[in-house]
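Colleagues,

Please find the record for the two-part complex below.
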Amino acid sequence: MMRRAVLIGNPSVGKSLIFNHLTGLGVEVSNYPGTTVGLMTGIVRYNETEFSLTDLPGIYSLSGKSDEEQLVREFLITGDADLIVAVLDAKHLERNLYLLLQAAEIRKPLVIVLNMMDDARSAGKIIDATALSAKFGVPVIETIATEGKNLEKIADYVIGDELPVPVIVPRYDHHIEAAARNLQKYHNLSAAEALFALENVSLSTLSPEVMESAAAISSEIEKRHMMSPEQIIGANRHNTAKAISDEVTTITPQKKRRDLDSLLTRGFPGIPILIITMVGILGVVFLLGGFLEEAIISVMTTYLLDPFHALNLAPFWDTVGGAVILALMSGLGIAFPYVFLFYIFISILEDTGYLTRAAFLADRGMHHLGLHGQGLIPLVLSFGCSVPAIMSTRFLPTRRERIIASVLVTMLPCSARTVVISGIVASFIGFGAAFSIYGIVFILVFVLGCILSRITPGEQYGMILEMAQLRRPIPKYVVRKAWMRVSEFLYIAMPLLLVSSVFLGIFEYFGLVTMFESFIDPISTAVLGLPGFAFTALMFGILRKEMAFETLAIMGGTTDLASILTSAQLYIFALVCVLFVPCISTIAVLMKEIGVKAAALITVFTLLLGTSLGALLHFVFMLV
Amino acid sequence: MTFELSEDILEAILNTGKAAVKVSNLENLANGNTDGLKKAVTCLKDKGYVTESAEGLSLTDKGTVKASQVARKHAVLTSFLTDVLGTEPDHASKEACQMEHSISSETIERLDTFLETRGPGGHKSGRGRPWGRRAAHMEHAVFQEHEGHAGLTKRNPIISLSECEEGSLLHVSMIRCFGKHSRLIDLGVIPGELITLRRKLDNHAVVITVKGCDIALSPEVAENILVERCNTQ
């Protein structure tokens, strides 16, 4: 039986670094049942023994109500882990001990990894690992994950003969302890479970009955203390953490070093730096991405699509095969140039710790849209590609914010839509008209944000965000992180792209597209003032937005679009294309991140918004 | 009347901090009613709270405990009046003088618990406050408690974090709408914790340092954290 170890710890303590260092390439990202939280599991081969290692999401406490916290809690209590590897940031030992104390109370085998020993030392903190080890009764491994130092010792303990179980018993207020003892006795719970019940957090092993009696006791304690058990337990635990940390840490005063934060987090020059960074990233990805995309598409056309058509297969198979290749081109054409590049930059921002500063500065602006500072990231990303933008909404703390951000992201013009706007409106009508489309979209997004922030269910929580340490990113890990996200994207979007592309191909083959065209023509002409073939081109835009542009040219039989459509028609075409129905890849990611129902709602909403705005414009143009 | 006066006498002797106090020095307590004063002193001597010698009145051990209890009631009440109700300190002290005689120990305990949760050093076994309120060490702790609460009335007012300036060292008093911000506990922002306000933007979004870590807070979170300025490190 292969052993299983799990990594737990606060966010940004170097868990992922340790995970990446220990596991090989065979990393698998799986969703924990019922949640959208990704779990990374990899196999470690060490001294001819194999064990699996799972990286649990970074959290501050096991008693919280967020998806991540629930997942980790559930996993530690009911999961099949043989060893918990608790990773601590040595520099912030006291804060990190809080989670460790909670994990230790579960009384499962555990080892402590004291990471970032170099940082702690340069901050003048000397930690007595032996004393810490004695306190908890489990081994302490001192590591420097960025240098890979001592990491193999973790593996030693996982495959070792003896799995050390912590012995520490944190003390709580005597009312809490009495209550916990009662619960343990009457409901046959472990000490950790009893505390969870008192803190009123859900756990699959706690029956509603237990929760009810715990709630009764809790309210009594709350009355006496004027403080909820959750708060009392938290405060007690912090005190224990403080006492332990004081005991094992020796602090030598250090000279103050230059503090970059005095530049980065002030209104000035912080906000100009933020704007330059974001616009810079956008610009680079735009230019480089566009170039790469073109290269990928043209290479695939020359070496895959053209040779395939040259095979002269039966027309049906030619169509289906062509559709498959088209889907591959769409997928890869987005994945590498945009998703990958964006994630390279985002990973750099993340690893340097700048992202949290950006979120802090952006908090104010985001408020108008019903979002918080962290919401900046998806919105900036959305100018490149909606897919990574929606994937990044998972960093937002509440479902409410994830939904608002997702809606706004699908509305904002991604690079593909920019191609449509520049290719059709800017080239055939003029720059002013092209900017007016951006204007319309921005106004819509702003209004929609204001409306959504009022009507979206769920409570609005303020931002509580730990500022990550500023540090130099390690290129290898940046690339690796970006790569993992790209593969995740391909995994989600590819199947849908393939299926829908093949279906469209088959429809085309059986003449359904022409039928659709003649069927839609009167409606489309009446409502949008567009001929049937233009509307069909719009439908193709669902595969990939710029395909609407390409298809329009193909179906119109000319690249000089001005010769087949009037300026008004072109304008309406572009506007509708930009607004209505996100592309298939976006829909796929939406379904994964916020659920099928919400994804369907967004799709229908954008469809209605796009067509009704198009119809309105058509009506206005007719009057003029 | 005698009862209240005798409690006042005990308290007054305790507050002078001297071993013995002349009866003549206590006359202002009785508002010129020297008969009443004499009667009260006799009563106290009979009950074994004070002894009279050539230097004046001294508290017995029993008297010290009793006096401390009264003084504590006074301190808790004053603290409640000034910190919670915002009564002006002099006025509060006078009012407390009247209330301390009729308030029950039970109510004082509850009031103290209340102050402890909302006031500085809110958490139990707290570092912020050196005094506990465990009954077991009550008799030794009374003096400390007295000092503690007397100190409380002199402390800085409790204000919201968004009202403080960059760079100030602050003591967390209380967190409003706690349920919404339970992540604050995880990060160590709990009553009694010392925090530094590192950065404040003009929209009152702040960065605070807690346990050596920088934490960014939205304005609406910051305004729910009530703090007290610390003048000394």
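The mean pLDDT of chain A is 85.

Comments are welcome before we finalize the supplementary table.
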